[in-house]
Amino acid sequence: MKNLEILRAEWRWSSRASVLLARIETTHSRSALITITIVITMIFLSACAARASTPTAIPTVMLDNNGSSPNNQSSNPDAITASAVVVPVNDVQLSFSSVGRVKTVDVKVGDNVTAGQTLVALDTTILEAKVKEAEADVLAADAQIRYLNRLATDPLHYESAQADLVRAQALLDSAKATLLAQSTLTAPIAGTIVSVDIAPAETVVPGQVIILLADLSKYQIETTDLSERDVTRVEIGQPATIFIEALNEEFPGTVVDIDRVSSTLGGDVVFPVMIELDKQPEGLLWGMSADVQIDAVE
């Protein structure tokens, strides 16, 4: 009987040990699975980071220049190259020399005008009043002289009255000249109205540019970035080649002027150079960009 109880006890402890071992094995399996999952995740993230840190190659795009040869690839290594712009040979900015109220604007953009043609007229009410005032002063001075003549006054008073008459006449002439000069704005050259920045009833001030007039029948080329280091090798009469980008064509030309005063471009000192085209191409417009190549002087 005693042996039977001992066997039963051993069997119970053996069953409990088996269950415990099974639990331990299950726990170890789960821990191993978690560890493997973490390792795989870390390897995957490392691979993604390495892939993201590798720069993607950017393909090089070659632009076709339609068979034209840019100036900076000139066969002449001593040639001077510069950017340029198309400008009219003759253009003027027009303004009044005094304050006034605009009465009429007789032109619009695109109109062709002749030299001496009236473009803008001011209200001349005040100027006309000054002319009338000056005329009255002349009459008064003249009447004073006639009065002194009747009185047979002394020469000193008579000379003073004559001086007053001369002064009054001068003021009258000045008022008339002012009325003539400041009442209208006329075209100094024949050309085309490029811009109009005024309207009737508006007020103009001295120096305010209100009309831009230009002769658009002939253009020339003006450089915009010719450096002070290169201008010493440029002379009037040198041949030049001009590539007009909008027309995709080259034209021959000649240097006709070098600016006497420099300007600055991005901190660099540059000198504008004017180049005359040997012929005026069709379709050329003010402001078109160009590339210039000038044969340098050694």
Q: List the uncertain runs.
A: 52-73
The overall average pLDDT, rounded, is 81
Total beta strands: 14
Could you give the order of the helices and strands? Answer: HEEEEHHEEEEHEEEEEE
CATH architecture of the largest domain: Beta Barrel
Shape: elongated
CATH-defined fold name of the largest domain: OB fold (Dihydrolipoamide Acetyltransferase, E2P)
Coarse structural class: alpha+beta
Number of domains: 3
Q: Separation of termini?
A: 131 Å
Number of helices: 4
**Measured on Cα atoms, how large is the radius of gyration?**
46 Å
Give a description of the structure.
The protein is an alpha+beta fold and 298 residues long. It folds into 3 domains: 1-61; 71-88 and 219-294, Elongation Factor Tu (Ef-tu), domain 3 (Beta Barrel), CATH 2.40.30.170; 93-204, Beta Barrel (OB fold (Dihydrolipoamide Acetyltransferase, E2P)), CATH 2.40.50.100. Helices cover 37% and strands 29% of the residues. It has 4 helices and 14 strands. The chain has helices spanning 2-53, 125-151, 155-182, 228-231, and strands at residues 80-94, 100-105, 112-113, 118-122, 184-186, 191-196, 203-204, 211-223, 239-244, 249-258, 263-265, 268-270, 273-277, 289-294. The strands form 3 sheets. Strands 1-8-13-10-9-14 form a 6-stranded antiparallel beta barrel. Strand 9 and strand 10 form a beta hairpin. Helix 2 runs antiparallel to helix 3. The longest helix has 52 residues, at 2-53. Mean pLDDT is 81; it is low at 52-73.
